[in-house]
Amino acid sequence: MLSAAVRNLIGRFSPQPSMAERAASTMAPVAMPTEPRPLAPIAGEPDRRPWPPGRLDLVHQLWGAGYIFPGGEIETLRLARPLGASSATSLLMIGVGSGGPASSIARNMGAWITGLETDPSLLTAARALIARSKLAKKITIKPWDPENPAFEAKSHHHCLALEPLLDAQPEPILDGLARALKPGGQLVLTELATAAPLNPADPTVSRWARLERRNPADVPAGIAITRMLGRVGLDVRIAEDISARHMEHAMLGWRVMLRDLRDGKPTHQQAAHLVAEAELWLMRRRLIRSGRLRMMRWHAISRAPVL
Q1: What is the tens place of the pLDDT at every residue in 29-52?
Q2: What's phi and psi for 140, nearest 5 deg?
Q3: Mind giving me the DSSP string for 129-148?
Q4: DSSP secondary structure letters along 253-284
Protein backbone atom coordinates (compact mmCIF):
# COMPACT_ATOMS: atom_id res chain seq x y z
CA MET A 1 0.00 0.00 0.00
CA LEU A 2 1.12 3.56 -0.66
CA SER A 3 0.74 4.56 3.00
CA ALA A 4 3.16 1.77 3.95
CA ALA A 5 5.61 3.06 1.35
CA VAL A 6 5.39 6.56 2.84
CA ARG A 7 6.00 5.15 6.33
CA ASN A 8 9.05 3.34 4.98
CA LEU A 9 10.19 6.64 3.51
CA ILE A 10 9.97 8.27 6.95
CA GLY A 11 11.98 5.44 8.47
CA ARG A 12 14.53 5.56 5.68
CA PHE A 13 15.38 9.25 6.05
CA SER A 14 14.64 9.92 9.75
CA PRO A 15 17.74 10.37 11.94
CA GLN A 16 18.64 7.15 13.79
CA PRO A 17 19.35 7.10 17.55
CA SER A 18 22.98 7.32 18.55
CA MET A 19 24.91 4.41 20.09
CA ALA A 20 24.67 6.09 23.50
CA GLU A 21 20.90 6.46 23.17
CA ARG A 22 20.52 2.82 22.14
CA ALA A 23 22.69 1.69 25.07
CA ALA A 24 20.72 3.79 27.55
CA SER A 25 17.47 2.31 26.30
CA THR A 26 18.64 -1.18 27.30
CA MET A 27 19.72 -0.28 30.83
CA ALA A 28 16.30 -0.19 32.46
CA PRO A 29 12.73 -1.09 31.54
CA VAL A 30 10.61 1.77 30.32
CA ALA A 31 7.45 2.43 32.31
CA MET A 32 4.23 2.74 30.35
CA PRO A 33 3.19 6.41 30.31
CA THR A 34 -0.07 7.36 31.97
CA GLU A 35 -0.40 10.48 29.82
CA PRO A 36 0.38 11.16 26.17
CA ARG A 37 4.07 11.77 25.65
CA PRO A 38 5.11 15.33 24.82
CA LEU A 39 5.72 15.88 21.15
CA ALA A 40 9.27 15.34 19.99
CA PRO A 41 10.80 18.00 17.74
CA ILE A 42 10.25 17.38 14.04
CA ALA A 43 13.26 15.27 13.10
CA GLY A 44 16.09 17.38 11.76
CA GLU A 45 13.83 20.16 10.57
CA PRO A 46 16.08 23.06 9.56
CA ASP A 47 13.60 25.90 9.73
CA ARG A 48 10.50 26.38 11.90
CA ARG A 49 8.89 28.96 9.59
CA PRO A 50 5.75 27.55 7.97
CA TRP A 51 7.08 27.89 4.41
CA PRO A 52 10.89 27.93 4.21
CA PRO A 53 12.40 27.53 0.72
CA GLY A 54 13.16 23.83 1.20
CA ARG A 55 9.55 23.02 2.04
CA LEU A 56 8.26 25.10 -0.86
CA ASP A 57 10.53 23.24 -3.26
CA LEU A 58 9.19 19.95 -1.93
CA VAL A 59 5.48 20.79 -2.17
CA HIS A 60 6.00 22.15 -5.68
CA GLN A 61 7.39 18.74 -6.60
CA LEU A 62 4.37 17.09 -5.00
CA TRP A 63 1.54 19.28 -6.30
CA GLY A 64 3.00 21.29 -9.18
CA ALA A 65 4.98 24.53 -9.51
CA GLY A 66 3.20 27.32 -7.62
CA TYR A 67 0.86 25.02 -5.66
CA ILE A 68 0.84 24.16 -1.97
CA PHE A 69 -2.16 21.78 -1.96
CA PRO A 70 -2.97 18.44 -3.63
CA GLY A 71 -4.42 18.51 -7.11
CA GLY A 72 -2.64 21.68 -8.16
CA GLU A 73 -4.01 23.18 -11.37
CA ILE A 74 -6.59 20.45 -11.96
CA GLU A 75 -8.22 21.00 -8.57
CA THR A 76 -7.99 24.80 -8.83
CA LEU A 77 -9.84 24.91 -12.14
CA ARG A 78 -12.41 22.42 -10.87
CA LEU A 79 -13.13 24.67 -7.88
CA ALA A 80 -13.26 27.84 -9.97
CA ARG A 81 -15.39 26.54 -12.82
CA PRO A 82 -18.78 26.96 -11.07
CA LEU A 83 -18.03 30.66 -10.61
CA GLY A 84 -18.11 31.27 -14.35
CA ALA A 85 -14.92 33.34 -14.16
CA SER A 86 -14.04 35.09 -17.41
CA SER A 87 -12.32 38.16 -18.81
CA ALA A 88 -15.50 40.07 -17.92
CA THR A 89 -15.30 39.23 -14.22
CA SER A 90 -13.11 40.05 -11.23
CA LEU A 91 -12.11 37.39 -8.72
CA LEU A 92 -10.97 37.83 -5.13
CA MET A 93 -8.72 34.89 -4.22
CA ILE A 94 -7.90 34.24 -0.57
CA GLY A 95 -5.02 31.82 -0.06
CA VAL A 96 -3.18 32.44 -3.30
CA GLY A 97 -0.30 30.37 -1.91
CA SER A 98 2.83 30.53 -4.05
CA GLY A 99 0.93 31.88 -7.04
CA GLY A 100 -0.16 28.81 -8.99
CA PRO A 101 -3.95 29.11 -8.46
CA ALA A 102 -4.12 32.75 -9.59
CA SER A 103 -1.89 32.08 -12.57
CA SER A 104 -3.98 29.09 -13.72
CA ILE A 105 -7.32 30.88 -13.48
CA ALA A 106 -6.08 34.03 -15.21
CA ARG A 107 -4.46 32.01 -17.99
CA ASN A 108 -7.32 29.55 -18.55
CA MET A 109 -10.38 31.68 -17.75
CA GLY A 110 -9.18 35.23 -18.28
CA ALA A 111 -10.44 36.62 -14.96
CA TRP A 112 -8.95 39.70 -13.30
CA ILE A 113 -7.63 38.51 -9.95
CA THR A 114 -6.75 40.04 -6.61
CA GLY A 115 -4.78 37.37 -4.77
CA LEU A 116 -4.33 37.63 -1.00
CA GLU A 117 -1.92 35.69 1.22
CA THR A 118 -0.74 35.92 4.83
CA ASP A 119 2.71 34.31 4.75
CA PRO A 120 5.62 36.53 3.60
CA SER A 121 7.48 33.59 2.00
CA LEU A 122 4.41 32.64 -0.04
CA LEU A 123 3.84 36.25 -1.06
CA THR A 124 7.40 36.50 -2.35
CA ALA A 125 7.07 33.22 -4.26
CA ALA A 126 3.69 34.22 -5.72
CA ARG A 127 4.95 37.57 -6.96
CA ALA A 128 7.97 35.93 -8.58
CA LEU A 129 5.82 33.31 -10.32
CA ILE A 130 3.33 35.91 -11.60
CA ALA A 131 6.17 38.03 -12.95
CA ARG A 132 7.61 35.04 -14.81
CA SER A 133 4.19 34.12 -16.21
CA LYS A 134 3.72 37.59 -17.74
CA LEU A 135 0.28 37.85 -16.14
CA ALA A 136 1.07 40.83 -13.91
CA LYS A 137 -1.55 42.98 -15.69
CA LYS A 138 -4.29 40.54 -14.73
CA ILE A 139 -3.16 39.57 -11.23
CA THR A 140 -2.51 41.72 -8.17
CA ILE A 141 -0.89 40.04 -5.15
CA LYS A 142 -1.39 41.57 -1.69
CA PRO A 143 -0.98 40.59 1.98
CA TRP A 144 -3.95 40.33 4.33
CA ASP A 145 -4.40 39.85 8.09
CA PRO A 146 -6.88 37.13 9.20
CA GLU A 147 -7.10 38.77 12.62
CA ASN A 148 -8.25 42.04 11.03
CA PRO A 149 -9.91 41.09 7.74
CA ALA A 150 -10.67 44.18 5.70
CA PHE A 151 -11.88 43.78 2.12
CA GLU A 152 -13.20 46.56 -0.07
CA ALA A 153 -17.00 46.38 -0.13
CA LYS A 154 -18.68 45.21 -3.35
CA SER A 155 -15.32 45.13 -5.12
CA HIS A 156 -15.37 41.73 -6.87
CA HIS A 157 -17.81 39.66 -8.89
CA HIS A 158 -16.76 36.40 -7.23
CA CYS A 159 -14.47 34.96 -4.57
CA LEU A 160 -12.44 31.75 -4.30
CA ALA A 161 -11.26 31.22 -0.71
CA LEU A 162 -8.77 28.39 -0.23
CA GLU A 163 -8.58 27.40 3.45
CA PRO A 164 -8.74 31.00 4.74
CA LEU A 165 -9.73 30.23 8.34
CA LEU A 166 -6.42 28.91 9.69
CA ASP A 167 -6.38 29.58 13.47
CA ALA A 168 -8.55 32.69 13.09
CA GLN A 169 -12.10 33.63 14.04
CA PRO A 170 -14.19 32.41 11.08
CA GLU A 171 -17.20 34.71 11.15
CA PRO A 172 -15.39 38.08 10.72
CA ILE A 173 -13.53 36.63 7.73
CA LEU A 174 -16.68 35.19 6.15
CA ASP A 175 -18.54 38.44 6.79
CA GLY A 176 -15.74 40.39 5.09
CA LEU A 177 -15.81 38.07 2.08
CA ALA A 178 -19.59 38.39 1.79
CA ARG A 179 -19.32 42.18 1.86
CA ALA A 180 -16.59 42.12 -0.80
CA LEU A 181 -18.95 40.49 -3.31
CA LYS A 182 -20.95 42.51 -5.79
CA PRO A 183 -24.72 41.88 -5.67
CA GLY A 184 -25.41 38.35 -6.85
CA GLY A 185 -21.73 37.43 -6.53
CA GLN A 186 -20.64 33.88 -5.76
CA LEU A 187 -18.24 32.38 -3.23
CA VAL A 188 -16.46 29.03 -3.38
CA LEU A 189 -14.79 28.16 -0.08
CA THR A 190 -12.63 25.19 0.89
CA GLU A 191 -11.63 24.42 4.46
CA LEU A 192 -10.54 21.62 6.75
CA ALA A 193 -13.41 21.06 9.15
CA THR A 194 -14.51 18.70 11.88
CA ALA A 195 -17.71 16.82 12.71
CA ALA A 196 -16.91 17.04 16.43
CA PRO A 197 -14.21 18.90 18.40
CA LEU A 198 -10.76 17.36 18.09
CA ASN A 199 -9.18 15.94 21.23
CA PRO A 200 -5.75 17.63 21.64
CA ALA A 201 -4.63 14.80 23.97
CA ASP A 202 -5.04 12.26 21.18
CA PRO A 203 -1.51 11.41 19.92
CA THR A 204 -2.54 11.51 16.25
CA VAL A 205 -4.31 14.85 16.68
CA SER A 206 -1.44 16.40 18.63
CA ARG A 207 1.21 15.24 16.17
CA TRP A 208 -0.86 16.38 13.19
CA ALA A 209 -1.41 19.78 14.83
CA ARG A 210 2.32 20.16 15.48
CA LEU A 211 3.25 19.28 11.92
CA GLU A 212 0.41 21.34 10.44
CA ARG A 213 1.29 24.23 12.77
CA ARG A 214 -2.24 24.84 13.95
CA ASN A 215 -4.33 24.68 17.11
CA PRO A 216 -6.73 21.70 17.00
CA ALA A 217 -9.22 23.65 19.12
CA ASP A 218 -9.50 26.23 16.33
CA VAL A 219 -10.42 23.82 13.53
CA PRO A 220 -14.05 24.79 12.78
CA ALA A 221 -17.00 22.43 12.53
CA GLY A 222 -18.45 22.05 9.04
CA ILE A 223 -22.02 22.75 10.15
CA ALA A 224 -20.84 25.88 11.97
CA ILE A 225 -19.32 27.28 8.76
CA THR A 226 -22.55 26.59 6.86
CA ARG A 227 -24.55 28.49 9.49
CA MET A 228 -22.09 31.39 9.51
CA LEU A 229 -22.33 31.75 5.75
CA GLY A 230 -26.08 32.09 6.10
CA ARG A 231 -25.77 34.67 8.86
CA VAL A 232 -23.47 36.92 6.79
CA GLY A 233 -25.94 37.09 3.91
CA LEU A 234 -24.96 34.19 1.67
CA ASP A 235 -27.30 31.56 0.28
CA VAL A 236 -25.46 28.24 0.60
CA ARG A 237 -26.20 26.09 -2.45
CA ILE A 238 -23.60 23.34 -1.86
CA ALA A 239 -21.81 22.09 1.25
CA GLU A 240 -19.97 18.91 0.35
CA ASP A 241 -17.28 16.65 1.72
CA ILE A 242 -14.47 16.46 -0.85
CA SER A 243 -12.10 14.49 1.40
CA ALA A 244 -11.91 11.45 -0.91
CA ARG A 245 -10.83 13.55 -3.88
CA HIS A 246 -8.43 15.53 -1.69
CA MET A 247 -6.67 12.37 -0.51
CA GLU A 248 -6.65 10.81 -3.99
CA HIS A 249 -4.74 13.86 -5.25
CA ALA A 250 -2.42 13.69 -2.24
CA MET A 251 -1.62 10.02 -2.70
CA LEU A 252 -0.99 10.56 -6.43
CA GLY A 253 1.54 13.28 -5.59
CA TRP A 254 3.33 11.00 -3.13
CA ARG A 255 3.31 8.11 -5.58
CA VAL A 256 5.17 10.24 -8.12
CA MET A 257 7.54 11.49 -5.42
CA LEU A 258 8.40 7.95 -4.31
CA ARG A 259 9.07 6.97 -7.91
CA ASP A 260 11.38 9.94 -8.43
CA LEU A 261 13.33 9.17 -5.23
CA ARG A 262 14.53 5.91 -6.77
CA ASP A 263 16.81 7.91 -9.04
CA GLY A 264 18.62 9.93 -6.35
CA LYS A 265 19.11 10.43 -2.64
CA PRO A 266 18.06 13.79 -1.15
CA THR A 267 20.44 15.99 0.81
CA HIS A 268 20.20 16.05 4.61
CA GLN A 269 18.11 19.24 4.51
CA GLN A 270 15.85 17.90 1.76
CA ALA A 271 15.39 14.66 3.72
CA ALA A 272 14.36 16.61 6.81
CA HIS A 273 11.60 18.41 4.90
CA LEU A 274 10.61 15.17 3.19
CA VAL A 275 10.19 13.31 6.48
CA ALA A 276 8.16 16.11 8.09
CA GLU A 277 5.87 16.49 5.04
CA ALA A 278 5.37 12.72 4.68
CA GLU A 279 4.43 12.38 8.34
CA LEU A 280 2.07 15.36 8.10
CA TRP A 281 0.18 13.67 5.27
CA LEU A 282 0.07 10.33 7.05
CA MET A 283 -1.46 12.04 10.10
CA ARG A 284 -3.95 14.01 7.97
CA ARG A 285 -4.91 10.82 6.11
CA ARG A 286 -5.44 8.97 9.38
CA LEU A 287 -7.71 11.72 10.76
CA ILE A 288 -9.70 11.96 7.53
CA ARG A 289 -10.15 8.18 7.26
CA SER A 290 -11.44 8.07 10.85
CA GLY A 291 -13.91 10.89 10.14
CA ARG A 292 -12.29 13.32 12.56
CA LEU A 293 -11.22 15.71 9.79
CA ARG A 294 -12.93 16.56 6.50
CA MET A 295 -11.96 18.68 3.54
CA MET A 296 -15.13 20.60 2.71
CA ARG A 297 -16.31 22.75 -0.20
CA TRP A 298 -19.05 25.37 -0.01
CA HIS A 299 -20.66 27.20 -2.93
CA ALA A 300 -22.75 30.20 -1.89
CA ILE A 301 -24.39 33.18 -3.60
CA SER A 302 -24.81 36.67 -2.22
CA ARG A 303 -28.39 37.49 -1.22
CA ALA A 304 -27.77 41.19 -1.75
CA PRO A 305 -30.28 42.52 -4.29
CA VAL A 306 -29.02 43.04 -7.84
CA LEU A 307 -29.43 46.74 -8.58
Answers
A1: 333 233 333 333 444 443 446 899
A2: -115, 130
A3: HHHHHT-TTTEEEEE--TTS
A4: HHHHHHHHHTT-PPPHHHHHHHHHHHHHHHHH
